[in-house]
């Protein structure tokens, strides 16, 4: 199939723009393989420390004639998505031995839950936890004991952090191992209805907790299509998972066999040790190239995925020497149709999506339509098209079959030839208030353009207080500034979704503008988010005042104040609010001080590394 001209154009532009940095990156990982730290270069003392507690695997690791797999895990049993990983280490060691290999738990990384911290002070640690995870991954792999790696992580900042860290060891063959979503619980629309009733004071906390507990009710990833499940989708679009493994529920035979397949496969794509020469070497740094990054963007757009990846994808790309910007994503969005309607863009959750055909269907549709690069180096086959397979158990063994020829539920999943919408629902907004992104896939088109007076806040809690006092009962553009990476770590402001939704349902024209983030489940309110440059670094939001007339227009890609140009230019900015201490926020001051703008990924680590 001929590649779509926009996909071809944007990919070519990224390749050309990235040529110097990508070349430097590939040189780095080539040197790491040939002259970096690995088992043959370790001293006897180094090596003895590395296998001292390896029990039955000690002789094999010491002998150095078989692959040793480093496992980096984000296990904890507070996160429902990561709780299933508790049993994986012992399973992985057994599966490795089946292939004559060994495995060691190289290290653990923190895994905070945005669902728990949403609206709390600790949400200010969330984005920078990605940098901490990346550094933790680098520490885990730095011991030089490994010829391959498995990454165990699912949720919001965890997969991007694992990838960024592992890409600095891009000479290692690496596979990501998911654990799957929890079974469906309370319908998402009902959950939102209950939240809005609570915001209006019509029900109490106990009724709200009952609804939330019915939604988030067991082990596995939350089932809405937020950042966590968007992560899994993107890993399949980049060919870094065993095909079709993203959305298989935990705790069943198929889930276990997919983990076994990942372990077996990583032993087959290494460079080999001892007498075992490389025959199918597939290092992570070569798998994640410009085409793979474009595929991830295309998948995000085609499925209506999380706005958080407007931050994460540029950061992941930079770690591989690739420069991706918001103009690239905006241009791709105009060419890629929306073919999935998963909550919050539709009624069904990821379990319904998987039952309708899921990622195998999506991959086949996008590759065959020329919207995704089929010729990337995946961890499993000759092309991405080989990933359009659905796993199942046949005679107690893992087997694969072709993706269904047609969607099994067209309310959830449709072909490229008959999409839900002709574009990917991600818009770049530009104007005298800066650059921002808006997710339009869940916003009614009648609300894509809002002109209304601003009410300006420096804290989300002040917005909640104003809502409860009835001060927002009007056409309004709610602006929450000083929420960028340098100001306070760029927290998600998801708890504002319910009160703003109530205002919209009451018939008011409502929009939201912030240099912070909205949830990966951004919904029906037109929201200009990630505004750059941020107010704390002198961005224009700092000059806004209550009553300023703001225009937010996804149709034209505009974010601006409608004011006299000379008066606007002459204004001075409001001072940033003082930074409160507590909840560990003071420990992240160095990251806030060194971080770059949202469009570059909001990372301190990558900026300081010169990437």
UniProtKB/TrEMBL annotation:
Which residues are listed for [4Fe-4S] cluster binding in this entry? Answer: 155, 222
Which Pfam family, an example, fits this chain?
Answer: ILV_EDD_C
Cofactor binding annotation: Binds 1 [4Fe-4S] cluster.
Q: Which GO molecular-function terms appear in the entry?
A: phosphogluconate dehydratase activity
Entry annotated with the keyword Lyase: yes
Q: In which pathway does it act?
A: Carbohydrate metabolism; Entner-Doudoroff pathway
Reactions listed under catalytic activity: 6-phospho-D-gluconate = 2-dehydro-3-deoxy-6-phospho-D-gluconate + H2O
Keyword Cell membrane part of the UniProt annotation: no
Listed EC numbers = 4.2.1.12
Record-annotated Dihydroxy-acid/6-phosphogluconate dehydratase N-terminal domain positions: 68-386
Which cofactor is recorded for it?
[4Fe-4S] cluster
UniProt keywords (A-Z) are: 4Fe-4S, Carbohydrate metabolism, Gluconate utilization, Iron, Iron-sulfur, Lyase, Metal-binding
Enumerate the spans annotated as Dihydroxy-acid/6-phosphogluconate dehydratase C-terminal domain: 412-601
Q: Which PROSITE patterns match?
A: ILVD_EDD_1, ILVD_EDD_2
Q: Which SUPFAM superfamilies match?
A: IlvD/EDD N-terminal domain-like (SSF143975), LeuD/IlvD-like (SSF52016)
Give the similarity note.
Answer: Belongs to the IlvD/Edd family.
Functional summary from the UniProt entry: Catalyzes the dehydration of 6-phospho-D-gluconate to 2-dehydro-3-deoxy-6-phospho-D-gluconate.
Protein name per Swiss-Prot or TrEMBL: Phosphogluconate dehydratase
Report the source organism: Parasphingorhabdus flavimaris
Q: Which gene encodes it?
A: edd
């Amino acid at each position: 199939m001929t590649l779509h001209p926009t996909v071809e154009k944007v990919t070519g532009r990224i390749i050309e723009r990235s040529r110097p940095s990508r070349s430097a990156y590939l040189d780095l990982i080539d040197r790491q393989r040939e002259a970096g730290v690995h088992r043959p270069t370790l001293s006897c003392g180094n090596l003895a420390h590395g296998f001292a507690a390896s029990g039955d695997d000690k002789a094999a690791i010491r002998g150095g004639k078989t692959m040793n797999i480093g496992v980096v895990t984000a296990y904890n049993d507070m996160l429902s998505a990561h709780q299933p990983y508790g049993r994986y280490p012992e399973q992985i060691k057994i599966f490795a031995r089946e292939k004559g290999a060994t495995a060691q738990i190289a290290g653990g990384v923190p895994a905070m839950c945005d669902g728990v911290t949403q609206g709390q002070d600790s949400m200010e640690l969330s984005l920078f936890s990605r940098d901490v995870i990346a550094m933790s991954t680098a520490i885990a792999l730095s011991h030089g004991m490994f010829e391959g790696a498995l990454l165990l992580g699912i949720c919001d900042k965890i997969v991007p952090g694992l990838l960024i860290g592992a890409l600095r060891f891009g000479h290692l063959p690496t596979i990501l191992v998911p654990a799957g979503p929890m079974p469906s619980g309370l319908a998402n629309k009902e959950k939102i209805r209950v939240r809005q009733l609570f915001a209006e004071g019509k029900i109490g906390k106990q009724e709200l907790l009952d609804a939330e507990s019915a939604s988030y009710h067991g082990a596995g990833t939350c089932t809405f299509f937020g950042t966590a499940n968007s992560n899994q989708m993107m890993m399949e679009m980049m060919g870094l998972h065993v095909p079709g493994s993203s959305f298989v529920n935990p705790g069943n035979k198929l889930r276990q066999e997919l983990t076994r397949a990942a372990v077996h496969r990583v032993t087959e794509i290494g460079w080999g040790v001892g007498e075992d020469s490389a025959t199918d070497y597939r290092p992570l740094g070569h798998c994640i190239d410009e085409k793979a990054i474009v595929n991830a963007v295309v998948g995000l757009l085609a499925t209506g995925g999380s706005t958080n990846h407007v931050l994460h994808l540029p950061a992941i790309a930079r770690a591989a020497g690739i420069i991706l910007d918001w103009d690239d994503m905006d241009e791709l969005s105009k060419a890629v149709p929306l073919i999935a309607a998963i909550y919050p863009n539709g009624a069904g959750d990821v379990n319904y999506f998987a039952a309708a055909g899921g990622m195998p269907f999506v991959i086949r549709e996008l590759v065959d339509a020329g919207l995704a690069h089929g010729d990337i180096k995946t961890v499993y086959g000759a092309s991405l098209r080989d990933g359009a397979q659905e796993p199942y158990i046949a005679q107690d063994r893992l087997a694969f079959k072709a993706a269904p020829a047609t969607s099994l539920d067209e309310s959830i999943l449709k072909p490229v030839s008959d999409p839900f919408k002709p574009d990917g629902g991600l818009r770049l907004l530009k104007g005298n208030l800066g650059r921002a992104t808006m997710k339009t896939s869940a916003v009614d088109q009648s609300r894509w353009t809002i002109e209304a007076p601003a009410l300006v806040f420096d804290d989300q809690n002040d917005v909640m207080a104003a809502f409860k006092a009835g001060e927002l009962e009007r056409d309004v553009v709610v602006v929450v500034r000083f929420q960028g990476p340098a100001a306070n770590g760029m927290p998600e402001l998801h708890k504002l979704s319910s009160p703003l939704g109530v205002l919209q349902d009451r018939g008011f024209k409502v929009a939201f503008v912030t240099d912070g983030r909205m949830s990966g489940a951004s919904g029906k309110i037109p929201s200009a988010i990630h505004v750059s440059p941020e107010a704390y670094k002198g961005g224009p939001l700092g000059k806004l005042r209550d009553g300023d007339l703001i225009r937010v227009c996804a149709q034209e890609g505009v974010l601006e104040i409608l004011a006299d140009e000379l008066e606007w230019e002459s204004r001075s900015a409001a001072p940033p609010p003082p930074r409160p201490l507590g909840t560990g926020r003071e420990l992240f001051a160095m990251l806030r001080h060194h971080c770059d703008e949202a469009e570059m990924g909001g990372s301190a680590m990558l900026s300081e590394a010169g990437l």
